[in-house]
Amino acid sequence: MRVVDEEVEAFAALLGAGDRRGAIQRAVELVQDGGSLGDFVFGMLAPAHVLVCERAARQRRLTPAFQQMATDIADTVLGVAAGNARPEAERSRLVVCVTEREHQNLPARILCELLRAEGHRVAFLGRPSHTAGVTKVLEQLEADALLVSCSLPMNLPCVPQLASAAHAIGVPVIAGGNGFGVDETRGLRLGADAWAPRIADVALAVERFRAGRPALQAVEAEIAQQQELTAIRRALTEELADRVEYQCGHMLPRGPRSRSALRSDLHNLLVFLESAVLCDARILADYADWLVGRAAEQHTHPRLVPAMLGALEDRLIFDLPAVGEPLQAARAQTAMAA
After folding, report:
1. Looking at the structure, do residues 229 and 217 belong to the same domain, yes or no?
2. Last residue of a domain, one of 205, 221, 237
3. How many domains does the chain have?
4. 103-121 pLDDT, tens digit each
5. Burial letters for 136-169: b for 16+ Cβ neighbours within 10 Å, e otherwise?
6. Is the same domain home to 129 and 199?
7. How would DSSP label each residue in 137-192?
8. In the 8-state DSSP scheme, what is residue 302?
9. Radius of gyration, CA atoms only, the chain
10. Taking the alpha carbons of 64, 269, 165, 189 in that order, is the dihedral positive or negative?
11. Cα–Cα dist 37/31, whole Å
């Protein structure tokens, strides 16, 4: 069992109870005691937010409304704590955005405030509705770089469009966030010019860009086949649900929501497959492995996830050869786990 600091426990309780005033008061006390913004974020705010969401999930009460409440309070607290930071002289001009379908802005907002505290001028765009708007802001601010934040690998498919929009006006792109994985591979394949797993890496990348504009990274991803998957995803989900029900009906849990749950799992497998086709076969394998773990917790048939992957491969392999590697990797992973 993970040991949680008492201070983090207390702060998580404030977030979970919706106590905005109490959370703000505690944040001000901690920052005024001499701690840095980074100390507060990584030692208190981020772990408390993760803790309250994890506990709510285990107790089956992590609704979108609950998560939004906790995140909204954490965001407000972040702004208050950041107001006490004393930034150094301006170091660079940066624009930050999150990827399409990201429902969680907090990691990117934390990034923005920590960069501001270190003297960078930062404009946060949230989730852009179109790339033309990104290009316009980059031009208006004469940005040194575009930072693209992605928390979940299923949300990576829009990165090539963002990278192309920045590159069209000569602005380099920095990739960051858990969605980009543990090294630079995914980011570079999607068109980013640097990967920044830490705040310090952002500054290093910008300094490198300023020393000599990089040869902007070409997109190496399988965009055409990913886009075809996206176009047929809705119809394909229904078709695959019919196929799995027919072939593997004995494996499916009984109940009124059985079809809905199957559709949801197949839809998500297709979304993760799109990202895996683009840049990294491990993306689908990791998600499929998570599904197997969830199936074990819910006492679902252990062969159901491999069966869904088999149905996917049978349906897609001849029309879209790029799905072969990620589906085979996922089937191998789940065969060991099931």
Report:
1. no
2. 221
3. 3
4. 888 899 999 999 998 889 9
5. eebeeeebbbbbbbbbbbbbbbbbbbbbbbbbee
6. yes
7. HHHHHT-SEEEEE-SSGGGGGGHHHHHHHHHTTT--EEEESGGG-SSSHHHHHTT-
8. T
9. 22
10. positive
11. 7
Amino acid at 295: A
Show Cβ contacts of residue 290 under 8 Å, excluding neighbours closer than 6 positions.
none
Is 199 in the same domain as 299?
no
- Tell me the sheet residues that pair with 147: 96, 174
pLDDT for the residue numbered 213: 64
For the chain, list residues with pLDDT below 50.
Answer: 1-3
Concatenated DSSP letters of 28-84: HHHHHTT--HHHHIIIIIHHHHHHHHHHHHHTT---HHHHHHHHHHHHHHHHHHHTT
* Same structural domain, 37 and 19: yes
User: Which residues lie below 8 Å from residue 44, measured CB to CB, with a gap of 6+?
Assistant: 7, 8, 11, 27, 30
pTM score of the predicted model:
0.88
What CA–CA distance (Å, rounded) separates 155 from 159? 9
Tokens of 232: 């047929």
**Residue 307, H or E segment:** helix 304-316
The pLDDT, as a whole number, for residue 214 is 62
Which tokens sit at 106? Answer: 């907090």
